[in-house]
What does this fold into?
Amino acid sequence: MNDEQLRRAVEKQVKRMQRAEKERPTLLAQSVFMGTLALLFVLPMILGAYLGNWLDNMAQGYSIYWTIGLLLAGLVVGVINVYIFVREHE
It folds into this structure.
């Protein structure tokens, strides 16, 4: 490898490192991403639990079947939301 080839290879590597440094996500961007994931996961579970509790209170006697069922449905919806969101932002 002569001097000219070595110089081009080093310049190419330096440009690649500078571009990678610019594209690196900031702490704020990572925090927003993680917060969005948390909302996408937790919100369907909370909504399922509240809706299930309301339905259980409407029924005669005390039952938790709707609460448990809709909480688990919210869990499934939350996992699917997170999966889709992460897949789109890769």
Q: What stands out?
A: Helices lie at 3-23, 27-58, 65-88. The chain is about 85% helix and 0% strand.
